Amino acid sequence: MHIKTYILCFFAFIIGCSNIFAQESKANTTLQTKLSLDDQRKFDYYFYEAMNAKALNKYAATFDYLKYCIEIDSTNANVLYELGDYYNSLDKKNKAMDFYRKAITYDSDNFYYNMAYANLCFEFKQYSDAIEKYEALILKNSDNNELYIYLSEAYRLDGDLPKAIEALDKLEQVIGLNEKISIQKFQLYSMLKQEKKAFSEIQKYIDKYPTEIRYQILLGDLYLQSGKPHEAFMIYSKAKAIDPEDPYLISSMATYYEQTDNKAAAESELQTALVSPKMDIDTKLGILAQYVGTLQQNKKDTNVANALFDTLMTQHPQEPKLNLMYGNLLMIQDRKNDARFQYQVFAESEPTNPTGWEQMLSTTFPDSIDLAIKVCEQAISYIPDQPQFYFYLGVSKYMKEEYEGALSALQKGVVYVDPENVGLLSDFYGQMGDLFYNLGKQDSAFATYEKALQYNPSNVGILNNYSYYLSLTKKDLDKAEKMSSLTIKAEPTNPTYLDTYGWILFEQGAYALAKIYIEKALQYSEDGKEPISAEVLEHYADVLYKTDEPEKALEYWIKAKEKGDSKSKTLDKKIETKTFISE
Questions:
Q1: How far is the C-alpha of 75 from the C-alpha of 545, rounded, in Å?
Q2: What predicted TM-score, i.e. pTM, was given to this entire model?
Q3: Residue percentage of the chain with pLDDT more than 70
Q4: In Å, how far from its chain's centre is CA 304?
Q5: 247, 279 in Cβ contact below 8 A?
Q6: What is the rounded distance in angstroms from the CA atom of residue 173 to the CA atom of residue 224?
């Protein structure tokens, strides 16, 4: 097993406590309120109903019942804990912390109350408080493995690495040798620059299990990652004596040769691994993926991996996953046409899997719109419930100015969008709004924009287009200005958004202010990659005319004309008359 696997497993082990009901323990009766028989009956009824509501995920009802309980007995630790859990679920951490703290006040021995409080301290980076709680909990629950992990992590984040190691040592005394713990101790010793102790953590497994090759490989990998290639090679050589055909050893040796600039040896090792009968196709693909990742990380030429893919494809000609991965490699190499062929093989072998069609689409959109349309239509014919293909079909047809077809595609696709995916719903309706406007249906456009913003009020593309089209119709300019101002706050160097805001100000008669923003739009267009459009140049000329610079205005009207992409109905007349003319 490679080191990445160990580390992932270790962190999976330490993440979060399960959300469980508080268990009863002996309460601090000196602090708790003594209830009358009648109040106790009421309390028991409301608490029972609260727990029933919680079990049914009726959180509002749960909270209401708990409020009744706390009004009857404000010192009941169980209710305080449940209220803490309620606020924690709402991400109101400060309130949750207060209720957990109160619960401990009235029941200081309860494990779950203390654990919830300690975990919030940990989350708030109050590590010293968390450490104190974990230490106290360990004294009473010395066989609880989880506590040692939390304690070690709290010490590590607090900067006390020796104490973090000490906590893991204690855990080892409880559960014995554990690979995840040893890997974490290796990392901690490495951070302390105590390399001898770090490597001895892995060596003890080799000493105990001398014929287990995986520990030899792991130690070699750690030496290699620590910049000790000679030591790594010595360990790998010992591993070869156990099993020279072990695929993971071969993979590690290939990485070693790659890092020591012996490409021929690296490729030879990988070729050996790929033809090994001991290795299944998924393992081979994993090794290839790791190798390509290493090449990218070390900024090496990924083309050396192509021959390895050719070897595998000869071995496994009917394995579509191989085509998918090879396509991904070719995309890294910017060989889109070759990648598309590999993706097409995958898509045709698994036509109901959206991945192949999505990857094909990535090789076409937005460079080859006709091809993108073809891919989307093919995908929809096999999997008609995937909204992403309708979306790109609609956008592609929009770019070809096939507005009716684009709108039809989006209207068909939006019904398949997950109601929870508000971002995608907003994008769908935003595109439909643009199409309605281009089809001359202004009222439908503005109503559709409103719907899009209901799903995502911060969608800057929609805010920009909606506000700009309002300005062109000279309607609701105050509303347009407010929406447009949000876009330049979100992206203050976006030339399109700056031009829109400037033009709205122009329509409001704030010419001096409009000039500032449109000049910024020109500046950021020149500084960045976005070309200056004829529209922006004409807007700048218009504002120059309104700020008493008619000669310069004429210069920019002419520049707008020379761009050749103007859709203005009045530009020629402005140049001819040297006067601003409103559309």
A1: 74
A2: 0.60
A3: 93
A4: 31
A5: yes
A6: 30
Residues 6+ apart with CB under 8 A from 127: 121, 154, 155, 157, 158
Nearest to 170, CA basis, from 183, 151, 187, 188: 151
What is the pLDDT at residue 26? 45
Backbone angles phi, psi at 494, to 5 degrees: -80, 115
Cis bond leading into 277, ω under 30°? no
Q: Is 282 exposed, middle or buried (0-12, 13-18, 19+ CB in 10 A)?
A: exposed
With tokens 């050396």, the residue in question is: 304
Residue 83 burial by Cβ neighbours in a 10 Å radius (0-12, 13-18, 19+) = buried
Q: 333 CB contacts (<8 Å, ≥6 apart)?
A: 302, 303
Give the Cα separation of 150 and 143 in Å (integer): 14
Judged by phi (left if over 0) then psi (alpha if -120 to 50, else beta), residue 368 lies in: beta
3-state secondary structure 47-63: HHHHHHHHHCCCHHHHH
- Angle between helix 460-472 and helix 495-507 axes, rounded to 10 deg: 30
Residues 313, 327: contact at Cβ < 8 Å?
A: no
Q: What is the mean pLDDT of the chain?
A: 87
**What average pLDDT does range 118-128 have in this prediction?**
92
Q: What is the reported pLDDT for 433?
A: 96
Would you say residue 511 has pLDDT above 70? yes
Distance CA 470, CA 401 (A): 21
Q: Give the three-class secondary structure for 302.
A: helix
| Phi, psi at 334, each rounded to 5° | 60, 35
Q: Do 251 and 273 meet the contact criterion of CB atoms below 8 Å apart? A: yes
Band of pLDDT at residue 8, cut at 50, 70 and 90: very low
Let me know: does 414 contact 435? Beta carbons within 8 Å: no
CB atoms within 10 A of CB 443: 8
Given CA atoms 348, 352, 353, 359 in this order, what sign does their dihedral have? positive
SS3 of 444-500: HHHHHHHHHHHHCCCCHHHHHHHHHHHHHCCCCHHHHHHHHHHHHHHCCCCHHHHHH
Q: Pick the closest to residue 362 from 390, 331, 338 (CA basis).
A: 331
Which tokens in the block code for residue 278? 């001991």
Which sign does the torsion angle of CA 202, 204, 207, 209 carry? negative
State the DSSP string of 495-564: HHHHHHHHHHHHHTT-HHHHHHHHHHHHHHHHHSSSPPPHHHHHHHHHHHHHTT-HHHHHHHHHHHHHHS
Environment class of residue 555 by beta-carbon count within 10 Å: exposed (0-12), middle (13-18) or buried (19+)? middle
Cα separation, 497 vs 376, in Å, equals 30
Q: Per DSSP, which regions of 26-110 are E strands? A: none
- For the beta carbon of residue 241, count every other beta carbon within 10 angstroms: 9
Q: Which two tokens stand for residue 335?
A: 């060989």
Cα–Cα dist 229/233, whole Å? 6
Report the amino acid identity of residue 106. Y
Average pLDDT over residues 86-115: 92
352 vs 335: CA distance, rounded Å: 25
Cβ–Cβ under 8 Å, residues 273 and 283: no
